[in-house]
Amino acid sequence: MAKVLCVLYDDPADGYPTAYARDDLPRIASYPGGQSAPAPSGTDFTPGHLLGSVSGELGLRAFLESRGHTLVVTSDKDREGSVFDRELADADVVVSQPFWPAYLTPQRIAAAKELKLAITAGIGSDHVDLGAAIAHGVTVAEVTYSNSISVAEHVVMTTLSLVRNYLPSHQVVLDGGWNIADCVARSYDLEGMHVGTVAAGRIGLAVLRRLAPFDVRLHYTDRHRLPIAVEDELGLTFHESAADMVPHCDVVTINAPLHPETEHLFDDELIGTMKRGAYLINTARARIADQDAVQRALESGRLAGYAGDVWHPQPAPADHPWRTMPHHGMTPHISGSSLSAQARYAAGTREILEAWLAGTPIREEYLIVDGGALAGTGAHSYAVHTPAADG
User: Fold this and answer.
1) Can 186 be counted among the known catalytic residues?
2) Catalytic one of 285, 302, 344, 363
3) Is 22 a catalytic residue?
4) Which of 127, 303, 306, 341 could form a disulfide with 297 if both were Cys (CB 3.0 to 4.6 A apart)?
């Protein structure tokens, strides 16, 4: 029998919901490109309910316990002697979300003698040390595409919020004011601007498609060039690198995975080549942007705004400088954890567990590491830094 350790974020401050704003969700059977949505043998939850918090349990308890497996759910993961660390010692499976990541460091993986599978409920598995997972034969899987469109929608929302100066203008209303000049002094139209994405995979391409109707000029850079038909359809300009692209853009959105090639990509030097007054949107991973460089660029006016929902560490401490830097539109890490997305990534987590427990293959598109190597989506998206590679 397997022990599954699930690390989820805390319930709402006023308790687990007993009612919801909507009664149902649209049914999403497949994603752009044809990949089918998660298809487990069954589910034990109501789509549209809060599944990603501790009491939601990703809808897994009845499924696992009815088959004799053990499920441990906690939000306690970061302090010394945490529940996560205590329970990890004999866990077969760890499940966590990018929004509340259970960091599987090389030390933790080495100490987890029974660990065989690490599942990301959502997308983005950089909280797992992939090199250590490869070395110890741990399979890493994520629910690819389950919340990609959710994140793309968040990118569009935050882009418009920054360019139109929405958040400060809304605050004027909350404060009882009517200071129109103050609101519009930093407000512009998105129309006609040049917008570029660093990476044009599932999220980046979805962002480009959603921004095209705003009559903007679209740019992208990616390790894998898109088909010419897609470039022609959306009027895309391809650039070989981020350094080539960003000087042309009024808005840059980061949609790349975090790995050694992208860590601290947006440092003082690269940001210094951007247009004065450009906007930077980062819903990918915080460490793709240098924390201090972003703050300096906002304070100097090099950047007109920065928004996103990814921080380092997560959760961000109360005194994190990104909370108080000027002209930002930061949120907690929520872009991929809408109730709509939760229904999909909870179902996908169960689908992965069903396959693994039955000894049948996990969907190729869900795999990040398998058989001691990058696999599936991981082989396409990630690069693993190992000492041998230094030579």
Assistant:
1) no
2) 285
3) no
4) 303
* Distance between CA atoms of residues 199 and 177, nearest Å: 41
Burial of 289 per CB tally in 10 Å (0-12, 13-18, 19+): buried
Token pair 């004027």 in the structure block, residue: 172
Distance between start and end Cα atoms, the chain: 43
For this structure, is 282 an active site residue?
no
Distance CA 192, CA 182 (A): 24
**Is the separation of the CB atoms in 252 and 305 below 8 Å?**
no
Among candidate residues 333, 344, 350, 363, the one labeled active-site is: 333
Q: How far is CA 248 from CA 237, 271, 275, 289, in A?
A: 10, 12, 7, 19
- Selection from 95, 92, 130 nearest residue 113 by Cα: 92
Angular region, 277: left φ>0, alpha ψ -120 to 50, beta rest: left
H or E element in which residue 373 lies: strand 373-374
Q: Could you tell me the two tokens for 196?
A: 């570029």
Ranges of H-type helices in the chain? 61-65, 83-88, 106-111, 130-135, 148-163, 166-174, 180-184, 202-211, 228-234, 242-245, 268-271, 291-300, 339-358, 376-381
Does 179 participate in catalysis according to the annotation? no
Residue 48 CA to its chain's centroid (Å): 20
367-370 and 373-374 strand pairing: antiparallel
**pLDDT tens figures, 126-150:** 899 999 999 999 999 999 999 999 9
**Neighbour tally for 302: CB within 10 Å:** 20
The two three-digit tokens of residue 129, written as one number = 């040390």
356 pairs with which residues across the strands? none
pTM over 0.85: yes
367 CB-contact burial (10 Å; exposed 0-12 / middle 13-18 / buried 19+): buried
Q: How many CB atoms lie within 10 A of CB 40?
A: 18
In tens, the pLDDT along 147-193 reads: 999 999 999 999 999 999 999 999 999 999 999 999 999 999 999 99
Question: Residue 2: how many CB atoms within 10 A of its CB?
Answer: 18
Cβ(122)–Cβ(151) below 8 Å: no
Of residues 350, 382, 367, the one with CA closest to residue 129: 382
